[in-house]
Amino acid sequence: MKKDTKSYRILIVESNEKVLISLKKLLLKRIVDPIIINAVDFKSAKMLFSQEDYDVILLDLNLSDRKGQQLLDDFGKENFSKTILLAELQDSELTRYAISKGVSDYLEKSELSSRLLYKSIVYSIERRKNIAKLQESEKRFSNLFYLNPQPMYVFDFKTLQFLRVNDAMLKQYGYSIAEFLDMTLLDIRPKNQISAFKKAFKYLESYDRLVTADEYQHQKKNGETFYVEISCNIIHDDGKKCGLVTAVDVTERLNYLKTIEERNQRLQDIAFTQSHIVRAPLANMMGILYLIRDFDLKAEEGEELFRNFINCGEELDKSIKEIVLKSNFFEAK
Fold first, then answer.
1. PROSITE patterns recorded for this chain (predicted)?
2. Which end of the chain is more exposed for a tag (fewer CB within 10 A), N or C?
3. CATH among 3.30.450.20, 3.90.79.10, 3.30.465.10, 3.30.750.44 for 150-249
4. Is the pLDDT assigned to residue 186 strictly greater than 90?
């Protein structure tokens, strides 16, 4: 049987010398060179694990200065994840309590073997590593959520209740955390937008996994309305179907696009004026000029042509002034 060559720091909290010797023998069968520290009572154990860190703690439930539930309560939850209980058969109710509080595992002294003990130690260490990774992942998610510069919130799909909101959400909407947690998604929408929202929300209700984005109108606590681009991811939190939402304020962008569209329309109006209204009197003037060549301007028909020419010129002048006014208005905008 190949032994484990990893370095393990193991604290054995056991007052029975025979049990201690037996545990050391079992450990040496599976681990090449474990570092084993022994404490015979709760007081000395507490001093040891407060001074140094251990990979695993083997804890007897019946010590001279602490026993049973009192021992567990005084032991400290921060040490439970690395603790394996050494229990008697009659301690089953107590071991269940300990496991519910976060103790890694328990072993009955009467059934101890090197394989079972080693397996429990490795499981305890790996479980703690996985928990640490999960906690780190949750911390990263929490930071991404709460420190995100864009407003974000989590809501309950069934009740539409806000479950979590980040700091940017508080600043953007003007509500406190307590106020948000007492509100639903309907409370941040203008009344005339609620019907459209309910219609859109029905589409999301039929999906369990979905990422969707759209633009909606929201309302701040002070009554001010603004436009947001909503990105919603459907997630499951504690067995509940929830929505993870990012709400980006796009009011400025939409206003900018509206301004561009209005300017484009004015440019089209100016282009139409140039191509139609200006060219009409100009074409008339050109036609009159060609006719003047064949008429005597002092004759009655010549005088009429001359009057028409002047009218066309005045009409052209008026059209040009209108174009200048529109251009000035465009520049002012």
1. RESPONSE_REGULATORY (PS50110)
2. N
3. 3.30.450.20
4. yes
